[in-house]
Amino acid sequence: MTYLSRRITFSSAHRYFQKKFSEAENKKIFGKCYNEHGHGHNYVLEMTVGGSVDPLSGMVINLVEVDQILKTVTDPLDHHHLNFDVPEFSKIVPTTENIAKYCFEKIKDLLPREVNLEKVRLYEAEDLWVDYNG
Amino acid sequence: MTYLSRRITFSSAHRYFQKKFSEAENKKIFGKCYNEHGHGHNYVLEMTVGGSVDPLSGMVINLVEVDQILKTVTDPLDHHHLNFDVPEFSKIVPTTENIAKYCFEKIKDLLPREVNLEKVRLYEAEDLWVDYNG
Amino acid sequence: MTYLSRRITFSSAHRYFQKKFSEAENKKIFGKCYNEHGHGHNYVLEMTVGGSVDPLSGMVINLVEVDQILKTVTDPLDHHHLNFDVPEFSKIVPTTENIAKYCFEKIKDLLPREVNLEKVRLYEAEDLWVDYNG
Amino acid sequence: MTYLSRRITFSSAHRYFQKKFSEAENKKIFGKCYNEHGHGHNYVLEMTVGGSVDPLSGMVINLVEVDQILKTVTDPLDHHHLNFDVPEFSKIVPTTENIAKYCFEKIKDLLPREVNLEKVRLYEAEDLWVDYNG
Amino acid sequence: MTYLSRRITFSSAHRYFQKKFSEAENKKIFGKCYNEHGHGHNYVLEMTVGGSVDPLSGMVINLVEVDQILKTVTDPLDHHHLNFDVPEFSKIVPTTENIAKYCFEKIKDLLPREVNLEKVRLYEAEDLWVDYNG
Amino acid sequence: MTYLSRRITFSSAHRYFQKKFSEAENKKIFGKCYNEHGHGHNYVLEMTVGGSVDPLSGMVINLVEVDQILKTVTDPLDHHHLNFDVPEFSKIVPTTENIAKYCFEKIKDLLPREVNLEKVRLYEAEDLWVDYNG
After folding, report:
1. Which chains, if any, share at least 3 CB pairs under 8 A with chain E?
2. What is the mean pLDDT of chain C?
3. Cβ burial, residue D55 (10 Å; 0-12/13-18/19+)
4. What pLDDT, on the 0 to 100 scale, is given for residue B16?
5. For a disulfide at F33, which of A39, B16, B107, F16, Cβ 3.0-4.6 Å?
6. ipTM value greater than 0.85
7. Cβ of F127 under 8 Å from any chain B Cβ?
8. Inter-chain touch F7–E128, beta carbons under 8 Å
9. How many angstroms separate the CA of residue D67 from the nearest CA in chain A?
10. Is the domain defined by E2-132 classed in CATH 3.30.479.10?
């Protein structure tokens, strides 16, 4: 098995807010991430696919295809406010954990069968990231 | 002259929107930065001060003081939506250019007289930044 | 399982020296790391915890808690000379391997039960690092 | 088990070209990587070895030995055109996948028995890399 | 004056070879950069323009325009072998110095008059770069 | 004028301590940098030279020469404790400011006359650096 990874970035706003929590709970659990109008990040998304290397092309998967999939998945997030603009995040808090899972599932649906989606890594910042593998 | 530079990061949401522009102009000039609910970035702010090195301490300025100033300046921006939460950016568009100028002026007011604020550099992303020197 | 990782830095001095080795052995095995007064690094410590995502908060663990643990573990190392100031490293050589294990065990003791410490990665420099998983 | 990783860089030219493909296929599959005279990259190679930590030296493996192995493996690639100068890549396309495998096998042959070559990671660019583990 | 900088990357092969030098001179001066079939790099090009900030748009120059210019300038270099594919570099050696000057002049011709091209910085690698300002 | 910059790293221990200060002053001014046995950093040194580009070689200065100079200057610092091992820093505090000036002067003495040493930049960490230009 050979693993190919590709990185893409997107810029989004988000707010941590759980309507089932009281205001005091929201403040205590989410701190400044609970600020009313949200804040934002340059997210870095890395996807890793595993597969066998085609003996002729020397590739696990064609990078053009990978880039189309990553663009399809991140376009609805990029330059958007996740809480307002992405239906999934009106129901669940757009934490790094939940966004990573969201990206994993969207990518998985689009990948061709010959390769396996091993992992998605999502960086909210250089010093904070989440790995999700389904 | 010796120049000391310090870097700090903050995470903000913003939206490019000029009420004096028509909707068509806003869309044309600002593109996806005009999306209604905004998006966000991990901003990296670098400030450079110039001065003479104190022969005893070996320092241009004490880093503790620098860090207090940078925190004072970026706290109102960090984990906030610039258009809503920072009065200056209800009047002017929170572009990298304007945020850099804002930071320069706020830092300049707080710096001790013995050092000179040479420059502020503000990165919106790794591949886009603005320098402002007053 | 979802994995959350957090990075923190600390700056330490250290010296590679094994009293059970002869001077010639110390020099041969440790090279310039054996220089008498030591040298130092900006260490980068990354910890990865695995757990399930809380459906309400959307988090594996609260980052405030993570940061307190990492600060508690690295404060005795930061701005210290490991050989002199950290009892463990008066007995064993403070190599990247041994410091990584030290950090892993200290973090493990402090982590709440609901999450699992998957791994600690310690960078001595951009081009040299150690992973330890218990 | 403790894992030690080391990074080295090398700069090579290469061209994606499969003589068993028609010109149209080469163009379609390889795009601009098929351009006649090739292009190039600053490759970043990371190797990870696993082993037990020697209780006296505190090391999995001596870094001097690691660096000699990595230099032996990358010297024939560094400042060379892979298609012309490396016999293996006159037969197979020098994709990141194939170069990673090449490096893994060369390193494995040179490593001492006490340690295990866990993985090789090869970056063609910051946003594209391949992991190979044998 | 406010200065806006933008970064773009391109991947090229090149060879250092001066036909007016003897073979011995070429070898002595250019070392392994003289290897017959060339090698390559991921170049990072940064351009800095200076101008006044438009009070309505908050911009020195529209980033869409900047990106078009940078793409126009780097497309003939990207995924090409500079010595073969770029006429200028059949006459002069494609050193970082000469490529930086080439990019500066091409960008200058395309920039609108309202902004001034302050500088071009070209990285051949993380640890080697050239600044050229006309 | 064309400017060429080169980066090199070295790892040193140091301690901030001024014998003309009282213990209380040392603690107040230097904080944890005053800890008795010192701490350390991976320093990154960048030097920038300016000159004209030789029309035949296409170079401002040969990189081999640059690297020899930088090695000569940093070898006495690398894997050393600056306060103990470098005579200059037994008299003045080895702050980033003073180390930058030290490197500038040592490099200047070794550079050939045809190029001008424009600047030395010294990073103590990613978020703290000093520029010195003589």
Report:
1. B, D, F
2. 98
3. exposed
4. 98
5. F16
6. yes
7. yes
8. yes
9. 25
10. yes
Say if F6 is an interface residue toward chain E (CB within 8 Å): yes
Strand partners, D44: D9, D123
- Among the listed residues E129, A11, A15, the one whose alpha carbon sits nearest the alpha carbon of residue B128: A11
- Cβ of residue D24 closer than 8 Å to a chain C Cβ: no
Residue B97 and residue B100: Cα distance in Å, rounded? Answer: 5
SS3 at position E22 = coil
**Nearest residue in D to E16, CA atom:** D79
What whole-number distance in Å separates Cα of residue D58 and Cα of residue D62?
A: 10
Structure tokens at B76: 């109102």
Segment F1-22 mean pLDDT: 98
pLDDT for A39 equals 98
- Give the Cα separation of D115 and D111 in Å (integer): 7
pTM of the model: 0.97
Contact B131, E3 (CB under 8 A): yes
Between F4, F56, F60, which is nearest E18 by CB?
F56
Catalytic residue among D33, D41, D81, D97: D33
Decide if F42 and C39 are in contact by the 8 Å CB cutoff: no
Known catalytic membership, residue D124 = yes
pLDDT confidence of A46, banded at 50, 70, 90? very high
Among residues C68, C13, C48, C40, the alpha carbon closest in space to that of C121 is found at C48
CA–CA gap between residue E32 and residue F63 (Å, rounded): 12
Whether F103 is catalytic is: no
How many angstroms separate the Cα of E93 from the Cα of each of D82, E100, F4?
Answer: 21, 12, 16
Chains with 3+ CB–CB pairs under 8 A to D are A, C, E
pLDDT at site B56: 98
Is there a contact between C49 and F50 (Cβ–Cβ < 8 Å)?
no
**CB–CB of D7 and C92 under 8 A?**
no
Strands of chain C (E only): list them. Answer: 2-14, 39-51, 80-81, 116-125, 128-132
For residue C21, give both structure tokens: 């080795």
D80 is catalytic: no
pLDDT digits (tens, 9 = 90+) for E54-73: 999 999 999 999 999 999 99
Give the nearest chain A residue to B32 (CA atoms).
A79
Q: Is C123 left (phi over 0), alpha (psi -120 to 50) or beta?
A: beta
d(CA B127, CA D77): 30
- Note whether F12 contacts C: Cβ–Cβ < 8 A: yes
For A33-67, what is the HEC assignment? Answer: HHCCCCEEEEEEEEEEEEECCCCCCCCCCCHHHHH
Query: Is E122 within 8 Å of E103 (Cβ atoms)?
Result: yes
Q: Are E113 and E61 in contact (CB under 8 A)?
A: no
Antiparallel, parallel or unpaired: β F128-132 and B2-14 = antiparallel
Q: How confident is the model at residue D103 (pLDDT cuts 50, 70, 90)?
A: very high
Q: What is the pLDDT of residues B36-82, one digit of tens each?
A: 999 999 999 999 999 999 999 999 999 999 999 999 999 999 999 99
Q: Which residue of E has its CA nearest to D35?
A: E80
* Cα of C123 vs its chain's centroid, Å: 9
Task: Quick: pLDDT tens for D22-53.
Answer: 999 999 999 999 999 999 999 999 999 999 99
Distance CA F73, CA A2 (A): 44
E/D touch flag: 3 or more CB pairs below 8 Å: yes
Pairing of strands E2-14, E80-81: parallel
